[in-house]
Amino acid sequence: MSWRKSTNLAWLRDLPGVRQGEPLATRTSFGIGGPAEFFAETARTESIEVVIEGCRLRGIPYLLLGAGTNLLISDAGVEGLVVRVVNRDFEVEGTRIRAGAGLKMMRLARIAADAGLRGFEFGIGVPGTVGGAVYQNAGCWGKELREVLVEVRGFQPGADRRTWSVEDLALGYRTSALRDGPLHGALVIDATIKLERGDGEEARRLMARLTSERNQTQPIKTKNCGSVFKNPPGDSAGRLIQAAGLKGARRGSARISTLHGNFIVNEGGATAADVAALIEHARAEVMGRFGVQLEREVELVGTWD
Ligand code: EPU
Q1: Which alpha helices (H) appear in the chain, and where do they start and end?
Q2: What SS3 class is residue 155?
Q3: Which one of 29, 74, 227, 257 is the catalytic residue?
Q4: Alpha-carbon span 53 to 102, nearest angstrom
Q5: Which of 46, 56, 198, 222 is the most exposed place for a label (fewest CB within 10 A)?
Q6: Rounded-to-integer distance, Cα 100 and Cα 153, Å
Q7: Residue nearest atom 5 in ligand 1 by C-alpha distance
Q8: Rounded Cα distance, 24 and 68, in Å
Q9: d(CA 186, CA 196)
Q10: Is 231 a residue whose pLDDT tops 70?
Q11: Does the global pTM surpass 0.85?
Q12: How far, in Å, is the centroid of ligand 1 from the Cα of 212?
């Protein structure tokens, strides 16, 4: 039976600060996607817990949104409730930092350097939030969040556990128990990382060098969703897409970047359908020419035909 009963709709309408039909395109780095049927945004994790527990009990679908840097939201938008998590608190204690799920990874990289800590410089190349980074074990320049992660506090509707170890999170290459396993639908409240004492100035210099390298190899000034595909074992999705002659390929205003084959850029007004068609085209071409199955890194959400 559909969740769309009058009592459920009334419950959603009565949530504090909730908005109906909220556009989501501006809340993603791609600048693409239809509206959220219901939308709420809060830094108070207690209220998010109450709301998602309420959704679970009523069978209402919900989506937890961070900075929207790894998402392709459908043109039709997202049914049910979208909750944007914006808690950005942080606390430095010795070589550990506890960071709120809504804090940007890039900001956390600067916080770590300012605290004279090293080992988190790679965070400067990760566009999303801490919560999103836990969700898919984000990484850059061969380093991943799991290498510095100690524990994560969160809330899973219907469960009592509040703290998850790195093992509980089953972090793999751009995957976790939150994205693809038993913790799906759980809220990340904050994450604790452990770093090493270092020299803040040195960390800042390294981050500046890495950023300039990234500027030259990735189309980061144009709207995009980061890497579209995961790298297949022992190879690179960007290299394969380039070798298939697909750089610059277009569907509407969506285009495979001429700079990096594993990026699709929104040149202005691209639709989710345009991007999805390009993704399928690239996948089919790479499979046809090289027999390699590309797996999506970007997550498709919302209602698709
Ligand atoms: N390459 C090409 N053609 C291209 C793109 C790349 O031949 O169009 C070649 C490069 O010359 C290089 C190899 O492919 O030899 C790898 O490329 P690159 O160093 O640009 O890194 P990547 O494997 O494409 C990964 C992460 C990025 C991260 C960079 C930098 C994945 C899927 N991507 O990209 O992460 O920023 O390394 O460390 O693991 C993301 O996850 O969203 C993301 C952007």
Answers
A1: 6-13, 45-58, 105-114, 130-136, 166-169, 177-180, 200-217, 237-243, 272-290
A2: strand
A3: 227
A4: 20
A5: 46
A6: 10
A7: 238
A8: 9
A9: 30
A10: yes
A11: yes
A12: 15
